[in-house]
Amino acid sequence: MSKPVMSVDPMNLDEVTEDQSVLEDGDVAIIEPGPEVTEAGPTKPRADDYEAMKSLVFTDDPNLEVEEECIFHWDIVNWKKMDRKSHSPVFRCGDSPWKILFFPYGNNCECASLYLEQGYADKPPEDWYKCVQFGLVLWNPNDPTHFVHHQAHHRFTAEEGDWGFTRFIELRELLLTNDKRPRPLIENDCSRVTAYVRIIKDPTGVLWHNFINYDSKKTTGYVGLKNQGATCYLNSLLQSLYFTNSFRKAVFKIPTQNENLSNSALTLQRLFYQLQTHSDAVSTLELTKSFGWDTQDIFAQQDIQELNRVLMENLENKMKGTDVDKFLNDMFVGKAKTYIRCTNVDYTSERVEDYWDIQLNVRGMKNLDDSFKDYVRVEMMDGENKYSAEGYGLQDAEKGIIFKSFPDVLHLHLKRFEYDFATYSLQKVNDHFEFPEVFDASPYLSEDAEGRDANWEYVLTGVLVHSGDINAGHYYAFLRPEKDGAFLKFDDDRVTKATKHDAIEDNFGGDYEYGKLQNGQRNTVKRSMNAYMLIYVRKTKIDEILVPITEEDIPPHVPQKFEEERLIREQERKEREERHLYLNVKMVTNNHFGHYQGFDLTNWDEKDTLAAEEAKPVTFRFKKAAKIRELIQAIAEMPEVNVDPRLVRLWVMVNRQNKTIRPDQPLLDHEKTVEEMQIKNSSKSNDFRVWVEIQNIDPAKLDDPSVTPEKEHSSDPRMCIFLKHFDPTAQTLLGVTHVYVRKKDRVHDLLLPQISKMMNWPESPKQAEIQLFEEIKPSMIDQIKPKQTFESAEIQDGDIICFQKTPTVQEAQALRERGLPTTAIEFYSYMTDLIKVKLLPKVSGAGRELTLILNKKMTYDDVSERVAKQLDVPPTHLQFRQAHNQSSAPKAPLKRAQHGNLAAMLSVHNYYGPLPPAPNMLYYEILEISLAELETKRMFKFTWLPDGISKEEACETLVPKTGTMSDLIPYLVKRYNLDTEQEQRIRFFTAHGGKFQKELGRDYTVLQQDYNYVYAELVPEDELHFDPETSKLIEAFHFHKEPSKTHSTAVPFKFVVKKDEVFADTKLRLQTRTGIKGKPFEKIQFAIVRRKSYSQPEYLNDEDILYNMVDPADDYLGLDHFDKNTRSNGYGRSTGEIRIK
C-alpha cells in the first residue's frame, strides 16, 4: 500500500558530498552507479527541509522564467509487495496532472528506477507539452538526514511522457547501514519519495525541444534553407536579404523571363519565391550552381561581408537598364568623407567615397557608440609623422573620416576576426560588445551633411551570429520579419521563435557563467557565439523597406515554371509507380526498313548515331496484361501505320546466334497477353520487338475464305524474306520490301523478274546484269549462285537478300579511282568503318559545329578535305586535336605523321590504366599559316597583366623557333589595341617561387626560356619617371604568415618607394599599382622582409616612412595575406576568393 503525504517533521541534514552525473539512455536519464546516499551536516539541508531541498535540486537560470512549481510526497509501504511497475497517486502542478513511475526492483537493471510521468488518464490533449525541471528524493521519513536525490529537466510531450532515472540507486544500497548511516533508506519495508516539480515558461516554443517532426512553417510561418555542406553563411545572408522586403521586390523586377537557370538573378527570384510559398526548407543548389560554384566552394566557409559585396555587385550589373537600376545604391550605399586638414596652414585634402557597409572595431570597445566614436576619431599627424602638404611641405595635420550620409538599410560588420601579430594569424575576438535595439547615427554625420537635422534613428532588424572560432564555425541569424514583430532564429533549415534577449543580449559575447556556485562564485568562459553583422533600418523608412510582398509582385513566369516542373514530377512519379505494369514495345515497319542503311532491318540501339531519324524504330509503352489484338489495334491506329487492323500482322524479332536480329514467326494467337508472348520469345532484350507486316490483301476480301494467306501451312510453305538494293553510283544500301518465296524455287528465277518490276528495270534481265548476295552477318556477305534454290542456299524466314546492278567496266573503274566500293560486299565492309564524328572549333565561337559521317580509314588529309569543304577554308590550314575523355576539353595538336588515319586520330592511349571510351569528337583550328609553315615555329605561352597584378590573362602565340621576346610585341599590340606609347612601355620578366627573378630584354631568345613564369606588363608611370635621388625601386612578393610560405602563383612586382612619404599614402599607391581593391586589399598586412634566410617580417604602420627603412639590395616588400588559390579542406573558413558569375 502507498499514500501521499504533504509534510513531515523537520530534521537537520548533512551536505550533499558529490553531484551525480546524468547520461541519456532511450527515453530516460540514467544515473551512473556510485556513492548515491547523501548525508546531512550542520549546514546542509535535511530531506524534510523542503525549501532548502529546492535549492539543492533546482539550479536557478536567470534566462528561465518559472510558471508553476510544487512539492509532492509519496509514502511507500510494503515495498516488497509492490508491483514491478508502480505509480503514485496523481498530483497537479499548474494545469497538468503528474505522477511518479516507480520500478522498485529495477527497470531491467540492478537498481531502483524512478521517473516523473504525465498523469492524464487517457492521453494528453493535442499538441500538449510542458517544460519541466524536476528532482526526485528518496529518503527515510524516520531519519531525514539520509537521502538520495537526482534532478533533470525535460520537455514532456504525448510521445515522451515520462523522464527520469533508470539507475536511481543500487538495490544493495537500500538496506545498507554503517557507522555514518545507522538506519537504512528502507525501514520496516517503508520509505518516502518527494518530487520537486517546476514548470518553466517557454516563450519561444522550442525550449529543450528535440526537433523530431518539427515544422518550421507551422510554428513560425517561415521556412529555412538547406545547408549544402558549409553554406550556413550564405543561408544567413540570403534570409536577411529576403526579409529586406523592398530588396526582394526589386529582385522580382529584374527581367528574367527569357533566361535559363545559369542566370543568378533568375535563381535568386526562384529561391525567394520558394521561401515565400513552400512549406519545407528550400535548397540553394540552383543558386550556387548559377554562381558557378563547385564542390570546393560548397564546403569552404566564406566571409559574409565579402559575399554580400560580391552578390550586390553582381545584382547591380543585372539591374542596369531596368526599372530597378540604381535601386541597390539608393538602399544600401552611404557616403563617407576622408580628410587630412593641416592645423597651421590653410590646406585640406578630402575624398568622398561610397560604402556598402561599415566595419567597426570590437576589441577594446564597450558598445556600438564606442566603435563609431573610434571610427570617426581624429588622428594627429605630427612629429615624425607630419603630412606632406602640396606647396607647404611637412605640416602638422588632423586625419579622420566622417559620414556624409547613411543608407536606409545599414549593414554593420563587427571585426570579430583580427590579425594577431604575436601568432601571425587571424584570431576570433569574443569580447563583450553591446549594441542597442534603436541606434541614433546623427552624432556621426558631418556638419554639412544633407538632412543633418532629420531623424537618423535606426531600428535593429537583424543580427547575424558566428559561433565557433577561426578554423571551424557556424553562422545563423536572428531576424525581425515585421516592423513590430518578434525576432525569429534562422538556423539553416530550422526556423524557431526567439526572444529579444536571445537575439540581442545573448550575442554580446564576453564571459558567461555556468555550473554551481563554488566559494560564492561561478565558473566563467568566453562565449564563442556572438554578433558578427548587424542590420539596422532607418526608422523613418521602415514602412518602405518592410513593405508587404503580394502575389502581384512575383513575376508570373516564376510560379508558372514551378507549376510546369511540378506536373512533370507528378507525371514521372506516376510513371515510376506504374512502370511494373508496362513494357517497352519497339516496332519497325517497311517504311523504316526503306530508310535504313546498315545491317539487319534497322538498328535497335537507341544510341545509334548513324541511322537516319526515319529509320529508327518506334518505341512506346504498352500494358503487359493487354491482348495481342489490342496491341495490333493500337499499332494500326498509329500515324506510321494507319491501316485496317485486319491487315496488320506482327512478327516477333529474335536474336540469332550469328548476332543478327530478324523476324522469326508471326503472332497468330491474338488472345495471348503481350507479357506472355514477350516471355515466350524472350531474348537478351527487355523490350518487346516486332516487325509490322502490312498484308497485301484487298480489305474488301479479308472475310472471303477463298483468299489464301501469304504464309499458309503446307508441305512447301512460303517464306518471308527481305530485299535490299545497293546502288554503286549513289553509294546507298537501302531496304526495298519483303516478299514471299517457296523453298524449292530457284533464287534467280523467282527474284530477278520481281526485282526488275519493282525497280522499273528491263523485264528479262540477264543473270549477269543483277547480282544477289545474302546478308548473313556484318562480317559475312555471300554471293548467291545462279542455280541455287532457296533451300540449298539455306534461306529462311527473316533472311535478307541484297541485289545490285553489275556496273560496267568503265563504271567500276571510275568508282575505284574515287576509292569507292563497286560491289555490295565491298560496301558492307566499308560500312563497318563508318563513324559519326563531331567537330568543334577549338575556341568557342571561332567556327561552326560540324557532325560528319566519316570512314575510320580516311587519312589526316582526307579528313582535312572533308572538313575544309564544309567550312570553305584551305585544307592545308586546318589543325586537329583530340578531346579529353572526361572533361571533353581540347588536348595537344595531333601530328599528321603520327596519326595516319581517322581511327588513329580518335584513339586514346593511356599508360596508367583503363580509360572510358573516347568520345567521337575532334577539335579543329583554322590556322593563319599552313601546317608546313607551322613546323618552323613554336608556341610561346606567357601571362599579360592588364591592370596591375590583380588580373591575369593567359596568352599564347606562335613565334619563330629562333625568335626573341620582340616577336611577342606585335601579338600584344594587336590583341590589346595598344598605341605606340604603350608599345614602348611593354616589359617582360620571369618569376620563380613567387618572387621576381629577372627582366627579359627584347633580344632575349625564346629558346632560352625555362619553366619559370613569364609575365608581360606596361611599365608603371612611377617607374617611367623614376628619380634615384628621391626614390628607390624595391621588389615585392606575396606570402602567408611566414616569408618562406610564398604564394607560388601570385605575381611579384617592382614598386617605387618615395622619399618622405608616410606609409598611409604609400598604400594608396600600392592599391593603384596592384589593382587590388576593397576588402581583399584591406586584408593585406605589409611588411619588410630581409633577403637573408629565416628573417622575421617587420610589419609596417601607417605612420612609417618606408624609404628610410629599406635597402632594395637587402630587402623585399612583403604582402602578407591568404593565398587566393588555397581552399579550405573542411568546414573551416576558406581562403579563396568568392566568385559569382
TrEMBL record:
Domain USP: 223-539
GO terms classed as biological process: protein deubiquitination; proteolysis; regulation of protein stability
EC annotation from Swiss-Prot or TrEMBL: 3.4.19.12
Top-level taxon: Eukaryota
Keyword Protease: yes
GO cellular component: cytosol; nucleus
MF terms in GO: cysteine-type deubiquitinase activity
Catalyses which reaction(s): Thiol-dependent hydrolysis of ester, thioester, amide, peptide and isopeptide bonds formed by the C-terminal Gly of ubiquitin (a 76-residue protein attached to proteins as an intracellular targeting signal)
InterPro entries membership: MATH/TRAF_dom, Papain-like_cys_pep_sf, Peptidase_C19, Peptidase_C19_UCH, TRAF-like, USP, USP7_ICP0-binding_dom, USP_C
Ranges where the MATH domain occurs: 69-197
Keywords: Hydrolase, Protease, Thiol protease, Ubl conjugation pathway
PROSITE patterns, per database record: MATH, USP_1, USP_2, USP_3
Family: Belongs to the peptidase C19 family.
Protein name: ubiquitinyl hydrolase 1
Organism: Pyronema omphalodes (strain CBS 100304) (Pyronema confluens)
Lineage summary: Eukaryota, Fungi, Dikarya, Ascomycota, Pezizomycotina
